[in-house]
């Protein structure tokens, strides 16, 4: 009981910390903020339910007025901006990512987690994001989908990196991978 | 009040960490010494009721601390080696008040009791301070005040001085010397427990010596120095 | 941790946070239901008036939080300029600005403790479904406590990277950050159990 709760809380804090550290470089020297990777990691490491709860807890703190989103943004404004659909999709993205890692046990872990992150962290999250944009900007879903395609390659790389990170974590701390516990 | 250990054995992750430890601790100041990995931190957690032994019994005042956590809150407090692993709350007052509300005090009572302990240590101005911003020594003192506020009869401290500079260590030690509760101090450094009433020496999860400091510490120091001149770092476990 | 609450004390700080949130929800829905540029323009002016009543410093803070909208406003201007649907573009832009400014005003004038109290209140009905509101409060406090520490872990790892590499730290420091966070979670769970665990009304403390 205490363990589940502290893991959920510490992961919510980790998602915040990933947005607050200076940006990191990807494979090709492109700077990224690692925060959205934290959402994929939450699902992949903690599993569907706990991962989604960690993300919900993080979102609650943003709503309460803490500047925890990358770039120091936060507050209730984070829920009514044109990009808020993405943000609102986070818990579902973490849940789906976690569910796939929990259920799909064949094949190399890195690959499973990368695929799960693509489905949860890209397909599901963009689904929410595009609907949100379409409402805020009063454009069709297809038009909004076109607007966000530029961000997909970066997120694909993040999904692959999430796979590598979780695989390394499983090697150094096998017990830490609750999604496979 | 006494800590009773009867044939205590603990396995963690399939490894035997403690073997048949028996001792009845009634003295006000108890030191437990040993090397890294000797099982002394595990024993600290057993005494505090955080680990249930898989063999034998560990009791304080006749009560099983691992089974009866409510009784444990009144009987025993524990201070861990790294205060960052212990401090749960963002502000000092919340950190101290938490344990008190857990003991059943109302919110206001808990706050008042927390203020009282801060005042007793001359740290009333810490009340609203962010725990994150405290220095390492200040954090350790906060952990001490947090546990003292709950008035346990026994306080277990696991290497409370590691990483502290000499003045800070001296100040914390001075605070400790005026505590009424029974103190069980776990350390690798014989200097820290020289004036104590009784010393337990653990090695490889076994109790190798138990007696007054004069009888145990010189032998302990000699053995540590002998080992220090050798090279047992070369051995890999498992 | 520093919240986005404005240090400039305005009259709106004294209103109960619950009422502000209820008003915000109602007004935001209304904004999305109307298509009349006149009504939306009036709403934006009214919100601007709210900021003005907080004084120049408060107004400047408020405007700074709106900066994130400029790429979208530019996009709308280009799009609707090209298609000639000026009125539709104006409606969208006014709505975006008003909704965000209104949400920000509530955040800027509500203290963290008041917001936590509202959240606890909102979660109370879920108690029947087995949600432990006490655990939620504890978890919120823990995130506030550990976010600076985990950020510091990240900075230290980045520094240790830079001490050995000419390049900017890469994603590789994320793995140890996660591992450290999970280790901390286990230690903190132990510390929490040492002080009675999550619930007051529980007898056995076993997991």
UniProtKB/TrEMBL annotation, chain A:
Spell out the GO cellular component terms annotated for this protein, sorted alphabetically and separated by semicolons. Answer: plasma membrane
UniProt keyword Transport, yes or no: yes
Q: Transmembrane residues, as ranges?
A: 51-69, 76-101, 113-137, 144-170
What keywords is this UniProt entry annotated with?
Answer: Cell membrane, Membrane, Transmembrane, Transmembrane helix, Transport
Could you tell me one molecular function GO term of this UniProt entry?
biotin transmembrane transporter activity
Q: Where in the cell is it found?
A: Cell membrane
Instruction: Tell me its family.
Output: Belongs to the BioY family.
Q: Would you tell me the protein name for this molecule?
A: Biotin transporter
From TrEMBL, chain C:
Q: Which residues cross the membrane?
A: 39-59, 66-82, 88-106
Query: Which keywords label this protein?
Result: Membrane, Transmembrane, Transmembrane helix
Where is it mainly found? membrane
Example of a GO cellular component annotation carried by this entry: plasma membrane
Which residues, if any, are the signal sequence?
Answer: none
**Lipid bilayer topology:** Multi-pass membrane protein
Subcellular location(s): the record lists: Membrane
Pfam (any one): CbiQ
Looking up CDD domains in the UniProt record yields: EcfT
- Record-stated family: Belongs to the CbiQ family.
Under what name is this protein listed?
Answer: Energy-coupling factor transporter transmembrane protein EcfT
């Amino acid at each position: 009981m205490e363990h589940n709760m502290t893991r959920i809380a510490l992961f919510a804090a980790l998602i915040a910390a990933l947005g607050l550290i200076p940006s990191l470089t990807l494979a090709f020297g492109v700077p990224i903020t690692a925060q959205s990777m934290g959402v994929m990691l939450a699902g992949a490491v903690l599993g569907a339910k706990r991962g989604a709860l960690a993300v919900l807890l993080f979102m609650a703190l943003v709503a309460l007025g803490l500047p925890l989103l990358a770039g120091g943004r936060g507050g209730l404004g984070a829920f009514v901006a044109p990009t808020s659909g993405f943000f609102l999709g986070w818990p579902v993205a973490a849940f789906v990512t976690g569910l796939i890692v929990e259920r799909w046990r064949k094949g190399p872990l890195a690959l499973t987690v990368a695929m799960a992150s693509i489905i949860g962290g890209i397909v599901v999250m963009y689904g929410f994001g595009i609907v949100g944009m379409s409402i805020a900007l009063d454009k069709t879903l297809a038009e909004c989908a076109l607007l966000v395609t530029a961000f997909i390659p970066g997120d694909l790389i993040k999904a692959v990196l999430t796979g590598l990170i979780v695989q390394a974590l499983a090697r150094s701390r096998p017990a830490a991978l609750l999604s496979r516990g | 009040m006494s800590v009773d250990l009867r044939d205590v054995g603990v396995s963690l992750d399939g490894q035997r960490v403690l073997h048949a430890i028996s001792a009845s601790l009634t003295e006000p100041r108890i030191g437990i010494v040993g090397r890294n990995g000797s099982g002394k931190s595990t024993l600290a957690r057993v005494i505090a009721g955080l680990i249930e032994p898989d063999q034998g019994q560990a009791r304080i005042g006749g009560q099983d601390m691992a089974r009866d956590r409510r009784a444990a809150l009144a009987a025993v407090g524990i201070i861990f080696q790294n205060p960052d692993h212990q401090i749960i709350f963002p502000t000092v007052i919340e950190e101290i008040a938490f344990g008190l509300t857990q003991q059943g005090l109302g919110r206001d009572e808990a706050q008042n009791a927390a203020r009282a302990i801060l005042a007793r240590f001359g740290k009333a101005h810490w009340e609203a301070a962010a725990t994150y911003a405290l220095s390492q020594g200040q954090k350790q003192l906060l952990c001490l005040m947090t546990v003292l506020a709950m008035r346990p009869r026994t306080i277990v401290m696991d290497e409370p001085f590691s990483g502290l500079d000499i003045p800070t260590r001296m100040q914390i030690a001075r605070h400790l010397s005026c505590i009424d509760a029974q103190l069980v101090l776990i350390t690798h450094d014989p200097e820290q427990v020289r004036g104590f009433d009784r010393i337990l020496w653990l090695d490889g999860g076994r109790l190798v010596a138990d007696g007054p400091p004069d009888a145990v510490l010189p032998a302990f120091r000699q053995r540590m120095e002998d080992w220090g001149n050798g090279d047992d770092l070369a051995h890999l476990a498992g | 941790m520093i919240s986005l609450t404005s240090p400039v004390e305005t009259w709106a700080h004294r209103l109960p946070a619950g009422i502000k949130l209820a008003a915000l929800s109602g007004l935001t829905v209304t904004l999305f239901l109307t298509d009349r540029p006149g009504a939306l323009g009036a709403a934006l002016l009214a919100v601007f008036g709210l900021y003005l009543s907080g004084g120049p410093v408060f107004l400047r803070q408020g405007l700074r939080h709106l900066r994130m909208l400029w790429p979208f406003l530019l996009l709308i201007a280009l799009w609707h300029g090209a298609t000639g649907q000026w009125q539709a573009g104006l409606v969208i832009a006014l709505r975006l600005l008003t909704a965000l400014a209104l949400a920000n005003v509530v955040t800027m004038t509500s203290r963290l403790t008041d917001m936590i109290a509202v959240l606890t209140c909102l979660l109370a009905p879920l108690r029947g479904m087995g949600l432990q509101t006490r655990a939620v409060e504890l978890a919120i406090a823990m995130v506030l406590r550990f976010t600076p520490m985990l950020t510091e872990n990240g900075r230290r790892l980045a520094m240790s990277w830079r001490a050995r590499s000419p390049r900017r730290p890469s994603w590789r420091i994320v793995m140890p950050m996660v591992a450290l966070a999970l280790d901390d979670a286990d230690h903190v769970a132990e510390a929490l159990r040492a002080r009675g665990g999550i619930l007051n009304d529980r007898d056995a403390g076993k997991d």
